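Help! Submission page says 'invalid entity' but I think these are all valid:
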Amino acid sequence: MREPVEDLIRQHQKHLFAAAFSVCQNASDADDVVQDTFLKYHLSKKEFSSPEHIKAWLLRVAINKAKDINRRTWRWNTVSLEEVAQTLTTEQSEDTWLLAEVMKLPAKYRIVLHLFYYEDYSVAEIANILKVSDGSVKTRLSRARSMLKNNLEEDLVYE
Amino acid sequence: MNEQESYKRAFDAIGDRPEITVDSLMDRRRIRRKTAVRKSIYTAFVFSLLFLGSNVITYAQDGEPWIKKVLNFTTGNGVEVTVKDYQPDDPNTTISEIKIDTNNSTDYCYAKDGRIYFAFNDKEEDITDQCDVDSYYKYEYTDENGYRHLIIAGGTTDNPGWAEYILDEDDVVSFSMMSDSVAMDTLGSEKLPRITVVRKVETNEESGNTSQNVTVYDDNSPVFAEPEIPAWLAKAENDLQIGNHVVHQQSK
């Protein structure tokens, strides 16, 4: 099956942007990734088994494209709170704070956290999207949450 | 509120993103295509074995030892390629380094006003009637090094593409590259213009059969997955008996 790209844009643009942003941490690059992802779908003749299959494929493509951007450009591991807040326009300071800490994590941990926290995917589904083993996903999730917890606790100590 | 809820709330607060329409996607493709084709020549090319065999010329150049062969050539669309073959101590292993300069490259095949054109040496030919999803146009020439170049163009006016194969004196494909429309389903990540190929020949002591492992590196990491070439290119490779010599998969 295939769905018209216009429908997919309506349904998934924001999701793809969020996933891309979680990887490349830059709104402009994330917008480019999203457009390139939909363009690839539009030009492809690939058939899919279900709407969920389409979404998983779109996310995989977007994440890979975002990773490519990171490989091309040297990026610092830290992101300013201002950049995150400007893009996500969140009004809750604790949300911005949490996101800033997430954005400090290595990309491979951010990606699994995003797919787990935001997209509500299971470990197996994340493994399928990223083409890694279930074990790898579990390890990355565990480490990501551990690092996040340590970072958040450190921030609390210094407040 | 736990971490997940807080994370979701933050990302749910994403403001409106720029509107995307099919027209804007196609405009983006048209604008990027020229650049993408140039980049894709060394980001999306399918690699084959570099046959050293008995065609070994041993010399030292620029103070570098072990260089067995250096090949410089410019393709019909202006891509400049330099291939250096090195022989390390292990006699069963050869290392090839390829540098590709696409700064002066053009597109062999493109769609214009609802037709498909093939362009070579400032000449333009309408090849629309020969191209389709599963049919192709073929062009051949021999360069000054004596290498035969086979250029295959095909596809539809919505999605034309091309691939070029360079065959050595034994008619074996030694190098190939393709436009981004052909390679859209590959990893597609932008690569650096220096690519290293390590080819290791192993002999099975019991059977005496030899096998070759070829790994393509870009910055010391495997680069390519299996590209899904379009039907017209698969047909061309089959008709022209060049598919067997083209290694489409190169990763450990």
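Support: the input was valid. A stray whitespace character was the problem, and the output above is from the cleaned input. Residues 22-43 of chain B form the longest helix (22 residues).
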